[in-house]
Each structure stands twice: as structure tokens, then as C-alpha cells.
Write a structure and sequence with these properties.
Blueprint lengths: L1 H12 L2 H8 L2 H25 L6 H31 L5 H4 L1 H15 L10 E4 L8 E8 L4 E9 H32 L14 H13 L5 H23 L6 H23 L5 H29 L2
Antiparallel strand pairs: 1-2, 2-3
Helix pairs in contact: 1-7, 3-4, 4-6, 4-7, 8-9, 8-11, 9-10, 10-11
């Protein structure tokens, strides 16, 4: 089912790694989601057409025919823009998918620009009496070249079937490319765990911060620097994996708190120690607690990136 493919593509694009990359360019971001929406919305119109009873030109036939051809054309445009937003490439329907290009030409000739194609190159019209659910007959005239008029039977149901089959192939390729891109990205960090950035002596480093509350411990600046350097290395590693700390809301909130705590302790414990021992203990407790929470989070990240 094409709906299942949509769901998988949306799931991949909503992953923090991919969504953060896409969101950096608001044009690409909006192009992506409007394209996905239009592909799905136009599919609803296409499905509605296939479920119609038989009709003629006097039974809303023109409305149905105009609508289905435009829905097919619109869906192709959305697919092209989806590909452009994800991979930076247009789709050359004429070269790569001539069957889809033919559907575009049927739409353009019959209802898109029938009164003047190619600056007088050709003119087209639908034979009213031939309109039915299966399709219609289109007459084409070529006054510039003097070619004989053409009468072409257009099978709308065949167009729907052709486009549906090719869309499944193209969307599956899109999905597989997205999965492959993510797997290749994860492979870069397969043997590089964030949790390994936390030295085994980290608890000792924190203990020296507490020690400095009651006496002036001369090496406390080194201990504080070791913890702070570890923290910054972890942040750097997260950004390498997700492009930004904001990609993960929990990480973003926790690092905002840690940034504040590090700044306060640098000022009040290291550079110009205040006399309020209880306040210092509260801030060190908070720093250690949020640091432990960060360690738990990076273990989850390591788990995701290990395979």
C-alpha cells in the first residue's frame, strides 16, 4: 500500500537526525512537508475517481475528467519537489519515466493548455460525446505544420494504474535512500561511544568540588576544568550526530541547565568563592544530578548509533 510507504518516509524525516538537518533551511523544510501532503491528498482524489460509478459528459463528466488529470499532474509535481527537498535533485520525467511524462502531456494537451500549445504549434479538444469513466477521445490540430488532425483515445484508468505502479517504485527508492543515508551516518560513530568520553575519575573530580566548599582546595580549578571539558566534548559529540543540541528536546533542556550551573559555579566556587556553603552544595548537587542525567541520555544515543 502506498499509504504505508508515506508513513515510513514521514517517520524517517521526523527522526531528530534528519529533521534537524532539514529544518536548517526553511524553504527545504516547507517544500518537504507540503510535497508529502500533496502526494497523499492527490491520492485521495485519485482513489475517489476510481470509486466513481459510470458517468457521461452530462453527468459531471467534465468535472471528473478535469479533476483526475489535474490530480495526477499535481501528484507528479509534488513527487518532484519531494525529491528536490530530500536529495537536491529534480526528476526528469521525460528521460527517466516516459510513461509519467506521457500522462503530463495528456493533461497539458487536453485540459492544461488546449487552446494554444507551443505558441500555435497545436490545439486540442475533448470530444464531449466520448467522455466516460474509462476516458475520452481527444482531437488535435497542427496548423503550423499542416499535419493531419489526430484523434487519440485517452484511457484515464490506464493512466491511474501506470502512475500508481511507478509511484510505488519511486517512493520505495526514496525510502531506501533515506534509510541508507542514516545507516551510513550511524556507521561513522559505530566505534565511538559518547559515554567513553566520561573518564572513570569523574566522581573523584566532583568530590573535590565538594571539598572546596569547606576549605580552599588549590587544585579545584583543575577538577572543575576536567568536568567542564568532559561536558563540552559530550556536547560536541551530540552535535556531530544530530547537527544541533535542539534536535533532542531532553538534551536541549538538560544542557541549558548545565550551562547555567557551570557558569554559576565557575563564578561562585572557582573564581570568587562565596561564603554561603549551603548554596554551593545545592549548586554542586544540581550539577552532579544533571550530569548523571546527561550520562543516561548519551547511553541511549550510543545504543541507537551502535548498529
Amino acid at each position: 500500500m502506498i499509504e504505508n510507504i508515506f508513513e515510513e518516509i514521514r517517520e524517517i524525516c521526523n527522526h531528530p537526525w534528519k529533521s534537524e538537518l532539514l529544518f536548517q533551511d526553511k524553504i527545504i523544510w516547507n517544500r518537504l512537508w507540503t510535497s508529502l501532503d500533496v502526494i497523499e491528498d492527490s491520492q485521495i482524489a485519485i482513489d475517489d475517481y476510481t470509486n466513481l460509478s459510470e458517468f457521461s459528459s452530462s453527468e459531471k463528466g467534465y468535472l471528473y475528467v478535469y479533476g483526475i488529470l489535474h490530480a495526477l499532474y499535481l501528484q507528479q509535481d509534488a513527487l518532484c519537489n519531494l525529491n528536490k527537498s530530500l536529495f537536491g535533485q529534480d526528476i526528469d520525467f521525460k528521460k527517466d519515466y516516459p510513461e509519467l511524462y506521457n500522462i503530463r502531456e495528456i493533461r497539458n494537451n487536453s485540459i492544461g493548455h488546449p487552446t494554444d500549445r507551443g505558441n500555435g504549434k497545436s490545439f486540442h479538444g475533448i470530444s464531449r460525446m466520448t467522455i466516460q469513466k474509462k476516458g475520452f477521445q481527444m482531437m488535435s490540430s497542427f496548423p503550423k505544420t499542416g499535419e493531419e488532425d489526430e484523434f487519440t483515445d485517452i484511457n484515464v484508468l490506464s493512466c491511474i494504474e501506470t502512475q500508481g505502479g511507478l509511484f510505488k517504485v519511486i517512493l520505495n527508492q526514496t525510502m531506501e535512500k533515506l534509510k541508507s543515508d542514516f545507516e551510513n551516518h550511524k556507521l561513522k560513530f559505530k566505534d565511538s561511544k559518547l559515554i567513553d568520553l566520561v573518564h572513570k575519575s569523574i566522581d573523584y573530580q566532583f568530590s573535590k568540588l565538594y571539598e572546596n566548599i569547606n576549605r580552599d582546595y588549590t587544585l579545584v580549578e583543575i577538577n572543575f576544568g576536567t568536568i567542564f571539558e568532559t561536558y563540552n566534548n559530550i556536547k560536541k559529540g551530540i552535535i556531530e550526530r544530530y547537527s544541533s543540541l535542539s534536535a533532542l528536546s531532553g538534551i536541549e533542556l538538560n544542557t541549558e541547565m548545565l550551562d547555567y550551573l557551570f557558569n554559576r559555579l565557575k563564578r561562585d566556587l572557582i573564581e570568587n568563592k562565596i561564603e554561603d556553603k549551603l548554596e554551593l552544595r545545592i549548586f554542586i548537587d544540581a550539577l552532579k544530578s544533571h550530569f548523571e542525567e546527561l550520562k543516561s541520555m548519551v547511553k541511549e544515543i550510543d545504543e541507537e548509533f551502535k548498529s
